[in-house]
Amino acid sequence: DTEVTQTPKHLVMGMTNKKSLKCEQHMGHRAMYWYKQKAKKPPELMFVYSYEKLSINESVPSRFSPECPNSSLLNLHLHALQPEDSALYLCASSQVGKAGDTQYFGPGTRLTVL
Amino acid sequence: GENVEQHPSTLSVQEGDSAVIKCTYSDSASNYFPWYKQELGKRPQLIIDIRSNVGEKKDQRIAVTLNKTAKHFSLHITETQPEDSAVYFCAASRTGNQFYFGTGTSLTVIP
Fold first, then answer.
1. Which of B52, B54, B97 to mutate to test the interface with A (most CBs of A within 10 A)?
2. Which residue, of A20, A68, A94, B14, has the fewest CB within 10 Å?
């Protein structure tokens, strides 16, 4: 399996809702990432997990809460989001997160916050 | 931190012509430079990458060149086809777990 999968593909939520995004990979990668991408802009790094431990948090608001239950799974828990949080949320993975590693992206979850 | 600039922001070429996209980076310690292609509504897909110990790499119609002294790298697409139309992002990395992306180039290949 050489793919990163993400569910759901689309998500519409109100500002008071709680929802979760899920990412899965079975390539044996030990580094996983969450990115946020607005239309026609590059992906912006949010979080990095390395060997199931949070290693980078790019000053993301606490309404976004990541979780890495095991080496294959990465979740992003959402609570009390704002309309400006509407974006494509991309998950990626790489072998170990060292210099020269390639990052492979999932198809993304398109999130709309009403 | 690293700063990656990418030019041009939009590029239109006739089918069969070549396309060149250029990126410059600021951190001389960056050692890995991937290029991603992103079609509308789809995921970024790695199309080619180069490491700092190599000056040029080619894969069929796609090539990347790296000039470490000048701190710039370029993507070259020859014999362009309509399916090459997409947004292309360059990136630079020195640690592996942090990619610094360019602002993207929207390429349109006119049939």
1. B97
2. B14
